[in-house]
Structures are given as structure tokens and as C-alpha cells.
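User: My collaborator sent over this chain with a note saying "see what the structure looks like." That's all I know about it. Can you take a look?
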Amino acid sequence: MKDDSLLGFALLGLVHQQPMSGYDLRKIFASTAWGTFSDSPGAIYPALRRLETRGLARGTVVESSSLRRRRVFRITPKGLAAFKAWLMKPITQDDVIRRVYDLMVRCSFMDEVAGEERTAEFLGEFAGEMAAYIPSLQQYLESHASEMTLSSRLALECGIQEYESRLRWARRAIANYEPKRRKKE
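Assistant: Without extra context I'll predict from the sequence alone. Here is the result:
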């Protein structure tokens, strides 16, 4: 998908789960953990139009019991292929440093599109990149703590603790997939 947009991928994932109107999507963004995305019509409807223009989603007008007709969006085969390619991308250290939220959005759709085995691999990549990055942060803190202001040191410590927490989460998440993997063997 050109002009990769996290909002666009989130919309594709949601309409892959079930066909929805723009209004349905706005309600999800307004009332759930997806609230980090704007529920503004000025964000969602243009993004849906871009997806439709690119052939990644298709909107059809559906009659409803109310006076208004609804335009319901579904993911197209081309959209599913683009969405799956996005999900399957390997995780890089740059993703871990700059796009952790994007990775969590990818993770949230992984099972149903890529399967549980790929989700477990994804989590392993995530944990590996986290584990590789944390020591460099700790080393930076150790070597620069004496010249840092108290507030900057505390902010860096907070960041390190967040990464350590994400690593613990990833390891626990991987453990959730282990019993399922053993049953398949």
C-alpha cells in the first residue's frame, strides 16, 4: 500500500473482521482502546475513500430501517493482500524504537489473518529486538547519568522501564502460544 497509513491499515483490519460503515468505525474509535485514532469524520472518511480509490476496500450502499442509507465497507482481495503483507513484515529495531504502537496494531490482527504460528514468530521477533535494544539504553544511562539533569535521567529510566515491561509482556504472550504449538505436534 503506497502512502502507508497506520489508520488505513487499522481500517482494513477492522473491516476484515466484519463489514462496517464509517459511522460504525467512528464509534469503535470513540469508545474503545482504538481511541488513539481520531474518531473525526475528517480523518476516517477520507481514509476510507483513499482505501476505496486504491481498490483496497469497497463501499456499498445498504438500505437500513432508519431514514439514512449506510455505506458499508468490506476489504477487497487486493486489500487483504496488502494488509497481509504489512502484517508479515519482519520487525526491525527501528520499529521497536519508533513504531511500537504500530507493532501492537499489527499484533492485534495477526491471528486471524496470518495465523497463530506467525503471531508467535512475530512476538519472538518483537522480544528479540527489545532484548537487543535495552542494553544499549542501559549502557547510555550508565555512561551519561552523571552529566544528565535529574529530570532527563528520570525520563530515560522511565523509558528503559517501559521497554523492559514490553519485553516481559512479549515473553508472557509467547508463552500463551506454547501449549497450542505443542498440541499441533
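A starting point for your reply to your collaborator: DSSP finds eight helices and three strands in the chain.
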